[in-house]
């Protein structure tokens, strides 16, 4: 859990080190060899952490011109409590081609669909299921004839997940398979399933063809399980130097949160622009990614 806070903790400790150093410099009588050694040791640890974190603020070269423009919006709807009017306004304003909403079942889907006519929509859980169980997907008219299927493997099987996932194909996606996912959270009752669910992302990240993975992964690049499960994929926000902007918890400043919502790309799609957007009613922020499908 604390690995996700590495960027914020690194910055916080760095500030504290500067303040301590200034205090010792201003008070010569308080300087002690032992304190200096401890301060130097902490400084080394912070420098090593910064060496891991800071490269994620440097954007990679942008994708070449050409290809098909593709915009993806992701937002955890917080058990269906996200402000549906605000979500609809965001969709109307940004006009994403594909929208992926973890923790949104049939109740939320129906309310949102009525506010964004023209968008096709699906959810991967039965009508009576709680919103927290579902993932709702919307496709714009421009997206064309995309197809949606639920991925829900038998309980207890090696590929079972606590929440069902989904896959979107066809239309504007071309040969790209888009996995819409919600990985279990890191809580005492669920943490045993968490590494295995991240490992299942390899069904897209190790695929021969082009793929996208979109959703709440409840992990950041600071987690080794995330790096293993997403090996072969590129994180869109990291490519654009924006992976230190927190998407959760929305109640704290962005620099103090963790980016656990992701758009991952493989073998073709390339991120052109990434934005993190506030939405009332949910403890997550939305992730808007504009890509080129090469």
From TrEMBL:
Keywords: Endonuclease, Hydrolase, Membrane, Nuclease, Transmembrane, Transmembrane helix. One of its GO terms (molecular function) is endonuclease activity. It comes from the Bacteria. The chain crosses the membrane at residues 6-22, 34-54. Residues 83-284 form the Endonuclease/exonuclease/phosphatase domain. Pfam families: Exo_endo_phos. This is Endonuclease/exonuclease/phosphatase family protein. It comes from Actinomycetospora lemnae.
